[in-house]
Amino acid sequence: MESGRSGEGRMAPPAWLTAGLRPAPAPVPWAAAARAALALSLPLAAGLALDRPVEGALVSMGALSGVIGDTADAYRMRVFNIAVPQLFGALGVTLGALVFGHGWLAVATLTLVALVSGMISSIGAVASASGLLLLLNAVVGAGLPMPAPWWKAPVLLTLGGLVVLALTLLGWPLRRAAPERAAVAATYRTVAELYEAAGSAAYEEKRHAVTASLNQSYDLILARRTRQHGRTSSLARLLAQLNVLIPLLEAAPAADLRARLYGPLPPAVAATVRELADAVESGRTDRTEPALPPSTRPAEKAVEHALRHAVTVVHEAEPDLHNVDDRLGRPASLTVRARRAARTMLLSEPSWRYGLRLALCIGLAQALVSLIAVPRSYWVALTVTFVMKPDFGSVFSRAVLRAVGTCLGLVSAALVLAEVPRGWWDVPVMAVLAALIPVFSAKGYAFQTAAVTPVILLLSDALNQQGFDLVLPRLYDSLIGCCIALVAGYLLWPESWHSRIGDRLADAVADSAAYVDRAFRPDADADSGRLRARRKLYRDLSAVRSEFQRALTEPPPTGTRAAAWWPLAIAVERIVDATTAARIRVAHGAPPPDPAEVTEVARELRELADGLRASETLVAVRTELPGDEDGVLAPLRQEVRAARAIAGPELPPDGP
Predict the structure, then answer these.
(1) Residue 4 — very low, low, confident or very high, per pLDDT cuts 50/70/90?
(2) Residue 268: which residues within 8 A CB-CB, separation 6 or more?
(3) Quick one: CA dihedral 417, 418, 419, 422, positive or negative?
(4) Which of 26, 394, 524, 531 lies deepest, with the highest CB count within 10 Å?
C-alpha cells in the first residue's frame, strides 16, 4: 500500500500547475460585481427596447472590455485604464472592419497590429491595456460583420467603455481600502504590539505574530501581483511599506533588551507605528513628524532612526511613473513624455521581442483559418491574444489555464444557449453572468476565463443568432489558439524557460553601486554622465520589473525564485530613488557626504550584487553602515540596510 500511494503521488500534477486551478482567497468585490451587471445588461435592455439588439450587444461588448480592464486601485489611474484603451479599441475595430472578408490582406493587417500591440506594451500599464484592446477589437472587426456605416461600431464600443467609467466614478465616495492595504496595515499594528510588549514575557509571542503577519502580507501582495494585468505602482508602494518594517524588526531585540534593563519603551513608539498603520490603510500622505522623546542609548537611536525612515516611506505620495521626469521634480511636458514613450517602444529590445512573438502567433492563427475552414475562426486569434499578452505573465501557465477555464465556461454557456429563450431573457441572464466576472477574476485566471466565456458567447449570439451551434466551435478554436501560443510563443523562444532574473537583478544592483559612486563626484564633467547613468538605470529597473511580472507565474524554479526575489527588486528601486534625492539635496546646498561614507555604501551594494550572482538562495545579512544620521546619505543608508536585510551573499558551510 505504501508503494501504491507513492506511485499516486508521482502521477499527481505538480503543485505549480494545480495552484492556478485553486481559487485564490479573496473577498467578494460587491461593488465591482454590481457595476459589471449594470454595465453589460443595461445596453442589452436598451437595444431590445429600441429594436436594435445588434447595437445593444456592441455597447455591452465595449463595456466588457472596460470591466476586464478596470484593475487599478487609484481612481485617477482607473480613469486612464478605462478611457484611454477605448480609443485604441475604436481604432482596432475600424481597422479590422476595413479588411473584413479580404483574406490575406486581413492576415497582414492583423499581424502588423499585433506587432504594434506587443511593442507598445513596454511603455506602461495604460499602454499595455491599450495595446490589448487595439488587437482584440481588430480581431473582432476582421471576424464579424459590423453594422454600417463604418463609424457606428467604434462609437458603440467606446460608449460601452464610457458606461463602465461613469459607473466607476459613482463609487468614488464609497471606496474602501484594498485587501492588500488592509493586510499591510494589520502588519504595522502587530509591530506596534511587539514594541508595547518589549521587556515583558509576551514579547516572544508577539514576535511570532509579527512574522506570521509579515509572511501573510507578502503572500497576499505576491498573489495579487501574479493576477494583476499590466504593471502598477500601487503594489510596489505597498511592498516598499512592508520592506521598511524590516529595520524596525531588526531594532526590536535591542529595544526588548533595553526595556528589560531600564523599563518600558516610551508609549510614543507604539503610537507612532499605529498612526502609520492608519495612514497605510487610508492611503494618506499628509506627513506629520512623530513626537518621539530624545534618544540617548544606542537601542533607542536605532528605533528612532528606523521609525523616522518608516514615516518618510509611508507618507510618500504614490509615484506616477509615466508623468514625472526621472521620478523627481515637476511633471514632464506632453511632448517629452510622448518622445520618451516612442523611444522606449522603438529602441527597446524587449519591446521588439514581445512584439515579434505576438505578431508571429497572430499571423499563424490568421493564416491557419484562411487556409482551413475553421468555424468561428476569429476565436483562434482572440485566444492567442489573451494568452500571448507578454506582460500578463507566463505564456505556458496562461495557455493551460485558459484551456481549462474555457471548458468550464462552456458548461454554463451550453446551458444558457440551449435552455434560455433569446430576447428579454438575455437581460437578467447577462446581469448574473456579468456580475460573476469580477468575482471570479479575483480567484485566478482560469476562473476569469470561465466567467468571461459565456458572456462573450451570449454577445456573439446576439450578433450572429447561431445559438447552441457556437459552443463546440468555441472549444476547438480556443484549443487551437492555445496550441499556437504554446509552440510559436513559448517553446520556440529559449528565454521562455531560461529566465535571467537573478543576473539582471545583480546587474541592476551593480549599476546602482556605480551610480552612487558617480552621483557625488565633485567634478563638473561627471554631470552629463550622471544624468545618462540615471536614465539608463531607471530604464533597466523598469525592464527588471517587467521580467519579474512574467517570471512570477512561470513554472518552478523560475516562479518560486521570482516570488522570493521581487521584494529585493523593489528595494533596489528605492535605493536608486534615495541616491537621486540625496544628489538633488547636495545640488541645492546641502553639505556633501563624506567620500568614505559614499565608498562604504557602494561597497555594500557591490557585495550584494556579487552575492546574487553566486547564490540561488537569498540570505539575510545584517549591516551597520555607520554615518551621520542627520547627513544627506541617511535615507540612502536606511534603504541599503533594508535591502541587505532581505538578501545578501550566502556564506559557505565552514564560513565565519
Answers:
(1) very low
(2) 290, 291, 292, 293
(3) positive
(4) 394
CA atoms in the 13 A half-sphere facing the CB of 240: 27
Grid coordinates representing 310 are 518608516
Q: Give the separation between CA 565 and CA 582, rounded to whole angstroms.
A: 26
Give the three-state DSSP class for 121.
coil
The DSSP element (H or E) to which 505 belongs, if any, is: helix 501-519
For residues 208 and 215, give the distance between their C-alpha atoms in angstroms, rounded to a whole number: 11
Residue 168 has pLDDT above 60, yes or no: yes
C-alpha neighbours within 13 Å on the C-beta side of residue 226: 26
SS3 per-residue string spanning 238-304: HHHHHHCHHHHHHHHHHHHHHHHHHCCCCHHHHHHHHHHHHHHHHCCCCCCCCCCCCCCCHHHHHHH
How many Cβ atoms sit within 10 Å of the Cβ of residue 137? 30
At residue 314, the 3 state secondary structure works out as: helix
Residue 508 neighbours by CB under 8 Å, 6+ apart? 537, 540, 541, 544, 569, 572
Can you say how many angstroms the Cα of residue 582 is from the centroid of all Cα atoms in its chain?
Answer: 29
pTM: 0.62
Greatest distance between any 2 Cα atoms in the chain: 84
Residue type, 205: E
What average pLDDT score do residues 232-257 get?
77
Place of cell 447577462: 430
CB atoms within 10 A of CB 240: 21
Of the candidates 613, 547, 602, the one whose C-alpha atom is nearest the C-alpha of residue 576 is 602
Neighbouring CB atoms inside 10 A of 464's CB total 15
Asked if 388 contacts 402 with a C-beta cutoff of 8 angstroms, the reply is no
Q: Return the residue matching grid coordinates 542627520.
A: 630
Give, in degrees to the nearest 5, the angle at Cα 537 between 532 and 543: 130
Residue type at 313 in one-letter notation: V
b/e code 357-375 from CB counts within 10 Å (16+ = b) = bbbbbbbbbbebbeeeebe
Rounded CA-CA distance 542/498 in Å is 20
* CA dist., res. 387 & res. 353, Å (int): 16
C-alpha span between 461 and 103 (Å, rounded) = 24
CA distance 309 to 183: 21
Residue 622: the pLDDT is: 55
Contact in structure between 356 and 112 (CB atoms under 8 Å): no
Rounded average pLDDT over 455-471? 72
At position 548, the amino acid (one-letter code) is F
What gap in Å lies between CA 329 and CA 587, rounded to an integer?
13
Q: Please give the torsion angle defined by the CA atoms of residues 285, 291, 296 and 298, in that order, rounded to the nearest 10 degrees.
A: -30
pLDDT at 94: 93
DSSP of 531-553, one letter per residue?
HHHHHHHHHHHHHHHHHHHHHTT
Decide: helix, strand or coil at residue 507.
helix
In angstroms, what is the C-alpha Rg of the chain?
Answer: 27
For 634, list phi and psi in degrees, rounded to 5.
-60, -50
C-alpha separations of 177 from 2, 76, 174, 280, 386 in Å = 49, 15, 10, 9, 29
Q: Please name which of 638, 622, 653, 655 lies closest in space to residue 304, comparing C-alpha atoms.
A: 638
Closest residue by Cα to residue 411 from 478, 477, 481, 475: 475
Task: List, for residues 624-645, the tens digit of each pLDDT value.
Answer: 666 666 677 887 888 887 777 7
Q: Are 395 and 149 in contact (CB under 8 A)?
A: no
Contact 601, 516 (CB under 8 A): yes
